[in-house]
Amino acid sequence: MICQLFLSFSLAWLLLKCRQNLAYEIPNVDMEMLNERGFEVSIPDEPGMQRVFYMLQVDGRCPALMDYITQAANGSWTSKQNIGLQNNDKLQISVLVQYNDLIYEKSETRVILNTRLLTTQQSISRIISNRTNAEECQVNLSSEKPLKHCKPASSIVSNSQGTCKGELLFEDNFSGAQLNRSVWMHDIRQRMYHEEEELVAFDDSPRYSYVREGHLHIVPKVASEVTQGVYQLGDRCTAVDSPELECSIAKSSFYKIKPPVYSAQLHTRQTFSFKYGKIVVRAKLPKGDWLFPYVMLQPVSTHAETHYANQLRIAYARGNAHLRSIKQEDISGNRLYGGMIVWQKQEAVQLIKERLNAKHYGDDFHNYTMIWQRDKLTLMVDDEIYGEIYDGLPFFNEKCFIIFGVTVGGFLNFDDNILMNDVKPYKNQQPRAALSFWQSRDTWASTWGKSSAMIIDYVRVYAD
Predict the structure, then answer these.
(1) Which CATH class is domain 168-462?
(2) Any idea which architecture 2-144 has in CATH?
(3) pLDDT tens for residues 403-424?
(4) pTM of the model
(5) What range does the record give for the signal peptide (predicted)?
């Protein structure tokens, strides 16, 4: 938007003499990736070509890359750019060619996917000069809208808005009567599979998530029964890894029972994602034994959760009111964590910072902030910095989307290696962990109540 206005002003000085309107088509743009050294775009030279102007935008980001070329070299009009392109970047290419004293325009859009280039949109060539009389034409590209001056941000967003540092890119105050389903999508699937098993199934029922009085509520519920019948989600299932495992449980399966807990998980994968910026979530975390909140970002290209897809965890605290580690450290809901989980060398690596509070983080609302920059991850609670992380950032080299949810258990979330024996009602790698958890429900279900919901007041993302 801003870049298009700048282009209009930049080309307003071009005055053209119109001759006979000859048909001309700008060739398709050739593009070559130069790895970390950048990339180059080019079109072949043809008789009659006089000048070429390129404007290149990565994910709508300003300032745009511009190159004005007055002479072909080695049979082509080539522009080399020293900026590297990354996975899932969208490159918009606008080309203006002066051919036999007429100016033609063409645009293309390319998407970088696993180092391959995909052309997703392409326009046909068109003359952009306006005839004032039969003999003379003048290009008029001025705009009534003023240029917007700001300090450019490093943030890249999926909807190409908010390119000024500090500008609000995304906001939801949950002030409507219902959840905005044009923004948020529900997961409908179970998490009781593979070695990072979580003892929950996600659904979009209003029992498990709803908006009320300006707050989003995500409410886990204990299932009424788990042993009878067959669990089948059918076409409703939103499996991200394995439909066979996420969407159904066969009757009389020795290793599985129906999910002991139902909850909700929402995300913006299809509607909003960003790379670099500041996200602020005002929330009250869930309170209850073995509950675990998801307030996090996940890269758009990572769908599988078999081995913990890389995650930027904005904030989490275990739901337990009383829980100590094998070293007698307080790891209850009084201890806040934030940072990242990366899957490296066949194991989940945690790069986490923490802060101990006098009260459980499920007792009150707090502002949880993550500032994601190229070289640093900053974690804050109520405007107080409690940690900075410099490692692991290369694992997050693309846009990420927002995830809110409440899960139960989990082998990493409640690791046997840090807990005393006989504290947790199931064991990591236990074939029938879900059944053991369910059979011990008298020890944990009584700790759940009105405070077991995660309540979110708002989420805001700012350009950085």
Answers:
(1) mainly beta
(2) Sandwich (2.60)
(3) 999 999 988 899 888 998 889 9
(4) 0.71
(5) 1-23
